[in-house]
Amino acid sequence: MNKKTNHKTWKDQLHGIIYEADTPIGKIFDVVLLILIVLSIVFVMLESVKGLHDSLYTFLYYGEWVITVFFTFEYIARIITIKKPSKYVFSFYGIIDLLSTLPLYLSFFITGTSALLAVRALRLLRVFRILKISRYIGESNRLAKAIRDSGAKILVFLFAVIVLCIIMGTVMYLVEGEQSGFRSIPLSVYWCIVTMTTVGYGDIAPVTPLGQLIAAMIMVVGYGIIAVPTGIVSAEYASGQKPKKINLNTQVCSNCHTSDHKDGAKFCHKCGEDLHNE
Amino acid sequence: MNKKTNHKTWKDQLHGIIYEADTPIGKIFDVVLLILIVLSIVFVMLESVKGLHDSLYTFLYYGEWVITVFFTFEYIARIITIKKPSKYVFSFYGIIDLLSTLPLYLSFFITGTSALLAVRALRLLRVFRILKISRYIGESNRLAKAIRDSGAKILVFLFAVIVLCIIMGTVMYLVEGEQSGFRSIPLSVYWCIVTMTTVGYGDIAPVTPLGQLIAAMIMVVGYGIIAVPTGIVSAEYASGQKPKKINLNTQVCSNCHTSDHKDGAKFCHKCGEDLHNE
Amino acid sequence: MNKKTNHKTWKDQLHGIIYEADTPIGKIFDVVLLILIVLSIVFVMLESVKGLHDSLYTFLYYGEWVITVFFTFEYIARIITIKKPSKYVFSFYGIIDLLSTLPLYLSFFITGTSALLAVRALRLLRVFRILKISRYIGESNRLAKAIRDSGAKILVFLFAVIVLCIIMGTVMYLVEGEQSGFRSIPLSVYWCIVTMTTVGYGDIAPVTPLGQLIAAMIMVVGYGIIAVPTGIVSAEYASGQKPKKINLNTQVCSNCHTSDHKDGAKFCHKCGEDLHNE
Amino acid sequence: MNKKTNHKTWKDQLHGIIYEADTPIGKIFDVVLLILIVLSIVFVMLESVKGLHDSLYTFLYYGEWVITVFFTFEYIARIITIKKPSKYVFSFYGIIDLLSTLPLYLSFFITGTSALLAVRALRLLRVFRILKISRYIGESNRLAKAIRDSGAKILVFLFAVIVLCIIMGTVMYLVEGEQSGFRSIPLSVYWCIVTMTTVGYGDIAPVTPLGQLIAAMIMVVGYGIIAVPTGIVSAEYASGQKPKKINLNTQVCSNCHTSDHKDGAKFCHKCGEDLHNE
């Protein structure tokens, strides 16, 4: 029994370092992890740039491999230190972590997949967990709430905008024709979206007077309706109450992956597992 | 009399399937209709794309005809199953339905009219009727109210913007002249609208230092006044009360096309016609 | 004395027709005036378009002259039917009316001045006077109040934006240099304004990686601060009370050009002049 | 002792002129200073313009030197008239003032540094001190508060937008490839930021149908989320109380550089130094 307890302690310690950020070592681990994530994103980006010195490519190549191997060990450690691995594997971060590691291995078999490593950018969202500054978490909760509350309304709005774009795109296709760059209806609808959202690349632009008149009308309408989603979010956000006090404890149960424990809790409130904080 | 009642039942059953979405068959009919609308819009769009395989054009051509014939039968069914067809024919959806069917027949006589089938996109608005999710309908009602309330103000605002664009467009025409692309006053006014709405294609752009100075001033002003309609809608939306409980019943009277019946109503509250729900 | 009264009546009647819009003839006069203003703006715009048929230019030329002669008579009539002409001549509309008539006469001496006729667009603002729909006037009053209240704040904000644009423009000039189109500091500042306001013509765009990184930062900052003026106007507008009931009377005193009379007033509340309404 | 008092008076008088704006001479000094700042910025900008007459460059060169010498004397005067120079030297304006003077001297040793004089634009912010119009200062305080309060939330938001841009930029790099101008992942991320912020230069634009579809989705999403920071600032600004009465006194203690004295105060409230106002 002694040995088993010992073994359990080793796993539990690793669990605390990897999953939690309350102890100094846990915090250092998370900061190192974040730096490696940022580095690996920079590596993936730089590798796609042409015209750099060959030795840099070699450095990037090996750097990427070192980081990926580290991520692989981290992923395995996350699985073995938790009692119910499926809880982690199928969680949001579990899937992101797998997708961040796999592409480089796949690149042996399929060319170009290494660019998929950009999905690692999603791992950056862990930064909010480490910062643990209540206002950041509180605000993003409140923001998320306002966006969720506005969601249905903004979807209704965007749906109406897209119906409008299909109709006006077709009108512009008929008015301008192919010699102005409006080569097909889907392309005209694309142009209409580019215009309504005020992006305005200018790769396609109306040339005939009638087309320019209609385009001007589309812009003025777009200018008028850009106000609508803004107004919705403003009103929704203003009416939203301050979210309740947020629990900043980062302990995670090594048995069931439950994470919202109270400060000073000694046992998991869900499965009764020892949380191993002394 | 027996036969007449029988005949009435047949029409009434069809009326229930086509106009209402409360029964399983009525719902299936509406979903199939929506899929066909989306398909027909995709067909019209794809047909305008050049460079596809010939067999695809043949498929699109026949597909469009099959859908149009279905829409034609649906339109006729909608007319014969209602007692006062004029109520439907001159309603918003009645006109849209006709305009969605006619262009393909017209394309025998006039070339190019088949592109007008894009008006079918408006039929997509039926989707809100099928979804019948109260928050969607409620929100779009509240949104519509906020936009209607803001309408007069935003019109005053857009009118002032257009007067400003006419004057600044003329000034830019005088300052920049034809060699910079400001070839006429209407074109300069068009450029001014493109700039004020922050679309900025770049097909016409000031070249002289004075022109660029004036353009910079127009942009800063446009940047400042883009706030106005947004502010109006925000304030209007925030002050709007939640709309009253919405009636989600989709029954439509087969005699007078009235649609806002109470759940469980057995007779039309307007003309007394039997609503045929058991 | 009889004759003098008669003479006064003639002037007073004309005054009523020209300045007021409460009588049928006064309303017809204002509508005809508005149509002529719109027509003359269209004429001036069309005249600048190249490649039209010669006979159209001839028509435009004579049409413009006919309208200008009418405007000249109207301007003279406005002066002689008022007892203190200086009250009208130096009012906002008095100056606009003069500037709308003069350029065509000046075009005999100086070429190109006829384009200045676009200032006539400002005369279109009279439309609000004719519409006399209380909500339009009320709304534009409330809007004007919100904009006036926000003015000082938005000026502070725009001043800070311009200081930022000068500094970032200089940085981009140093980073990108002349071969990328950033040919001088003023041009770089112009580019920075084009970018910050999200217009983005694309006639000048960063080419070097460092320049693009800085440009991306400018855009994200611009994206973040576009929220500021919008927020100001929203808050200001929302907090503004509904303006008091608006006086829709359009009577104007023929002696002192005072215009805010009560309905049914028989004498000017400022100078005691007879308002001649029976 | 008499002489020492005299000497002190001379320094104190200069201190009053340079640092304060309550006396007529102090106000004139500040206005002259502002004009010189504006002039020197115009000089630096014009000097970068090619194709001007040679004599103008000579004029600009000497003009810049005259102003810089004046600024040098002003900087020295600011240091010697204050008892604790370090209080000024390391204040915000102290650093700006040094950075505004140094580059021209450095241009003897390093070419191109004279363009750094654009940092002088920051000195323009002194204008708010001279205007001393309470509403300007009050408003900028309230604005600053709203922006500071929104800061954390907007940072969370911008962070999420950048993560989204990295991922979508990589997707576009894979979809569009190099022949469409998406030459590397960093460039694609740059394009994604240009698009999301609705700037849309058009120097890089998707060409393939799939790329255009994804681009359209990015735009619609960008259009929807542009509402978020606006909503935050609006709500924050609307909920902000009016700032307390602002102290418009411009006296600055010649000993400890403290500036928020009450009107009519005779001694510094922090160090007890005589403020020398009679």
TrEMBL record, chains A, B, C, D:
Molecular function GO terms recorded: voltage-gated potassium channel activity
Pfam families: Ion_trans (PF00520)
Residue stretches making up the Ion transport domain: 27-241
Listed GO biological process terms: action potential
Superkingdom per UniProt: Bacteria
Keywords assigned: Ion channel, Ion transport, Membrane, Potassium, Potassium channel, Potassium transport, Transmembrane, Transmembrane helix, Transport, Voltage-gated channel
SUPFAM superfamilies in the record: Voltage-gated potassium channels
Its membrane topology: Multi-pass membrane protein
UniProt GO cellular component terms: voltage-gated potassium channel complex
Major localization listed first in the record, in broad terms: membrane
Protein name per its UniProtKB record: Ion transporter
